[in-house]
Structure formats: C-alpha cells, structure tokens
Amino acid sequence: MAQVSRPRSAAHGRPVAILVPGADAIANAGDPLSVILGWARGLGFDGVTYFAPADAPAVPVPMASWSTWDARWQQAYRDSDYASVDPRLVATAGQSLPCLWDGGMIVARGRLRRFLDDAARAGVRSGVAIPIGTARGRAIVAFDSSVAPVTMPRLAAIRERLGELLWVAHAVHASRQVDRPPRAPSRTDAQRALSDREHDCLAMSARGLTSRDIAVKLGIASRTVDFHVGRALVKLAAINRHEAIAKAMARGWLS
C-alpha cells in the first residue's frame, strides 16, 4: 500500500474555529447522499464509504458503515465479513495518514481475493482511505474509485487534491452518525423497533419495489405505505429510504 504524503503543517498560533466550506450542505440537503456523491465525483472518485468509530484501532473490529454504494453490495460486505481483510481498514490500522490502495496491484488469495473480486464488480477497485481520530475511537472515510491500476498521473492528481479530500472527509464524518450493529441481532429486537407493517414496507423497498408496488402486494393505499416507511425513517434517524435500508441492514433488521 502506498501512503499519500502529508501536506506541510500550518504554523502554530492562536486556535481558531475553522468551518468546512459547504459542510452545511449535507445537513440542509433533503438527500445528503447526493451531496456527498457529488463531492466525491468532483474530486475524481465514484463513491464514499464511511466506517463508524470502533472501540479500538485494531482490525478486525465490528464497524458500522454508511455508503453511497447500493444496498446489495453493503449487505454482501457484511455477510462475508470483509472488514477483516478490507484494504481500506487494514492499511489504516494504527495509522494517522491517508492511505492510497490499489486493488489492481494487490496479489491476493482466499478471502482477500474474494473481497477484491466482489468489490471490483460493485465498482470499488482503488481509492484513498482517511483515518479520523475521535473520542470514541477511529473513523475511516474512504473515497472509492473504479479505476485500477492507479497510474502515476492519477496518483499525482490525488496528491494535488489531498487537501480537498481531507476537508470533505471531515465534513462527511461530522454529518454521519452511524450506530454500531448489535453483535447478535434477533427478530425480536427488530419487531420492537419496527412494527410488522414498517418492516414489511422497508423490506420490499430494499428489493426495489415502489410504494405503488408495495401497496398492491399488501392491499393498502400508497399513502399508507409512505406513512409506514416514514415512521421507519424516523425510528432509524434516516433522511431517505436508501439510508433507512442501509441502517436497518447494518443492525440486522433486514436480510
């Protein structure tokens, strides 16, 4: 793994409050995913994955995640326990510097090989992982790319925009509040959190059904489906269906 060099530090002086340019856009947007995805693409990447702070910097450690990638890939990632071999986590363990990883240059077998193959099919082939220290532990903001191998011109372009990547990483971290998944989730836990109707509507949404499709299957009105999904969003502290589905899957409430 090649580490991206750290930019020169600013001179020490009086502490001042620094605002991340445009950070409020995430909080104010009706769809924060589109804002974050737009920033990532503007910086030359295809997506962002945020790993919530773990209790310790070691890997493997159960970590919750939020991502701009589709729910199917996120579920496959958790089901296969890829966190234990994910270069974005392994390469940044115990590190404070951003790390560039390139799946096209990694000679691997076993679970790591399966991760690289599955991630590549999802569109994640390389990227920059940025560790962020917090009071709860460490978070990782990963800028993901479908490009591999990483050429020297691209590496130079990444280094040129490293400062912007750091700004956006901190903005993403400040905006994302992802709950760590329980170690042994049960259906009883899910039922306590979501009603049967809320669970059914969200589960069908995860399979790509629209409110109208769900209404036909359940024999209820579309607005009733929207009502149940809306209550699920509130309980999961999610902005939209995509985020609610991802959070529910992270907690083991949807399969």
Descriptive notes:
This protein is of the alpha+beta class. It folds into 2 domains: 16-175, Beta-Lactamase; 187-250, Winged helix-like DNA-binding domain superfamily/Winged helix DNA-binding domain (Arc Repressor Mutant, subunit A). Helix content is 45%, strand content 14%. It is built from 12 helices and 6 strands. It has a 6-stranded antiparallel sheet with strand order 1-4-5-6-2-3. A hairpin with a 2-residue loop joins strand 5 (126-134) and strand 6. Helix 9 (196-206) packs across helix 11 (222-236) and helix 10 (211-218) packs across helix 11. The longest helix is centred in the C-terminal third of the chain and has 15 residues, at 222-236. The radius of gyration is 19 Å and the shape is elongated. Residues 1-21, 56-62 and 182-191 have low confidence and may be disordered.
Helix content: 40-55%
Helical run tally: 12
Which regions contain 5 or more consecutive residues with pLDDT less than 50?
1-21, 56-62, 182-191
Roughly how many Å apart are the termini?
Answer: 34 Å
Q: Report the β-strand fraction as a percent range.
A: 5-15%
- CATH architecture assignment of the largest domain: 2-Layer Sandwich
Quaternary state of the chains: single chain
Taken from the alpha-carbon principal axes, the silhouette is elongated
Radius of gyration: 19 Å
Secondary-structure-based class equals alpha+beta
